[in-house]
């Protein structure tokens, strides 16, 4: 929709979502609007799309698209964890297709004042929703108030950082002299504690990821959103999810597996003759995650870690 942002796996999203003329769809992560626009073009003038985003900046950008698709596009400032309630407000009970494009957008990364990237020196914020009504604590709040054990747990759990305890202790020691206010301060500490030559990525990469997830409650919100999306699908409706790191992908994979598999029989019941099991209401469309082509990764390096999984509601 705008320069500076490239929609990841755009062709694959349309292929697997398979928008139909006059269909009703949801883009749970509007972002820059690239996927939304493609879906709107595919569903035609009688189709409808609800787009959600917890970032108020994305809602402002989306106003242009609303004018281009009058009566078709509705954009709401909301988190996808509230998808169920938002659909009730929208007045649509069953949805033909839902898209989740997780992670952060190029706009968020490239704005120093948002604090998502250590490439720029800016406020240590990292809130997806930075509106006046937001109750989220900033990354600086966490870094300057949590104990070394709490910070270590965040870095290890959400960033899978092997040096979590070492980094946390250094933060607590340094903040007594000077509180952490900027991304540059935190990035410099990471470089000091974990020299560059010991790994192939910037030493601050994993702790920035972990703090962003903690600040925004991303994993809990993802589980709630995916559950609501699965329940909202119409017959033959599809749920498409693009994730960007292993923690997100694990939630999607396990949730899809749960609703497409019969519970395993254990204990004495496993010795009984097998009975015919009822058909399952959902089916996996992608047995393995779809990843970007080499060409796409070359054109858009930020797509490198993307994984796309698809679930469908089937007619029983």
SSE ordering: HEHEHEHEHHHHHHHEHEHE
DSSP summary, beta strand count: 7
Contiguous low-pLDDT stretches (5 residues minimum) are: none
Class from secondary-structure proportions: alpha/beta
Give the overall form: globular
Q: What is the CATH architecture annotation of the largest domain? A: 3-Layer(aba) Sandwich
Describe it for me?
- With 316 residues, the protein is an alpha/beta fold.
- 42% of the residues lie in helices and 14% in strands.
How does the SSE layout of this entry go?
Layout lengths: L9 H8 L6 E4 L6 H10 L4 E6 L2 H13 L4 E5 L5 H8 L4 E7 L4 H4 L29 H7 L2 H12 L4 H12 L7 H11 L11 H12 L1 H15 E11 L2 H14 L22 E3 L9 H6 L7 E7 L3
Parallel strand pairs: 1-2, 1-4, 2-3, 4-5
Antiparallel strand pairs: 5-7, 6-7
Helix pairs in contact: 7-8, 7-10, 8-9, 11-12
Compact description:
This protein is of the alpha/beta class.
Which terms summarize this structure?
Rossmann fold, 13 helices, DNA polymerase, domain 1, 42% helix, 7-stranded mixed beta sheet, alpha/beta, 7 strands, 2 domains, 316 residues
């Amino acid at each position: 929709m705008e320069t500076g942002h490239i929609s990841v796996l755009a062709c694959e999203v349309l292929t697997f979502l398979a928008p139909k003329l006059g269909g009703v769809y949801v883009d749970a992560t509007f972002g820059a609007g690239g996927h939304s626009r493609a879906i709107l073009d595919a569903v035609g003038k009688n189709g409808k799309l609800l787009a959600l985003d917890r970032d108020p900046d994305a809602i402002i950008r989306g106003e242009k698209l609303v004018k281009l698709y009058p009566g078709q596009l509705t954009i709401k400032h909301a988190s996808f964890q509230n998808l169920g309630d938002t659909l009730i407000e929208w007045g649509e009970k069953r949805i033909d297709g839902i898209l989740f494009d997780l992670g952060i957008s190029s706009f968020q990364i490239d704005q120093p004042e948002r604090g998502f990237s250590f490439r720029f020196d800016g406020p240590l914020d990292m809130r997806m929703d930075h509106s006046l009504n937001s109750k989220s604590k900033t990354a600086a709040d966490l870094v300057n108030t949590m104990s070394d054990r709490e910070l270590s747990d965040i870095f290890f759990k959400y960033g899978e950082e092997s040096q979590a305890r070492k980094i946390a202790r250094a933060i607590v020691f340094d903040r007594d002299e000077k509180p952490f206010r900027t991304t540059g301060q935190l990035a410099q500490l990471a470089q000091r504690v974990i020299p560059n030559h010991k790994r192939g990525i910037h030493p601050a990469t994993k702790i920035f990821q972990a703090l962003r997830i903690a600040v925004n409650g991303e994993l809990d919100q993802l589980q709630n959103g995916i559950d609501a999306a699965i329940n909202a699908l119409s017959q033959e409706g599809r749920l498409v999810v693009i994730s960007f790191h292993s923690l997100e992908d694990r939630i999607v994979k396990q949730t899809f597996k749960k609703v497409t598999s019969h519970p395993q029989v254990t204990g004495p019941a496993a010795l009984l003759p097998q009975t015919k099991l009822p058909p399952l209401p959902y089916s996996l469309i992608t047995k393995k995650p779809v990843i970007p082509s080499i060409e796409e990764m070359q054109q858009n390096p930020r797509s490198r870690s993307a994984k796309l999984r698809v679930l469908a509601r089937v007619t029983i």
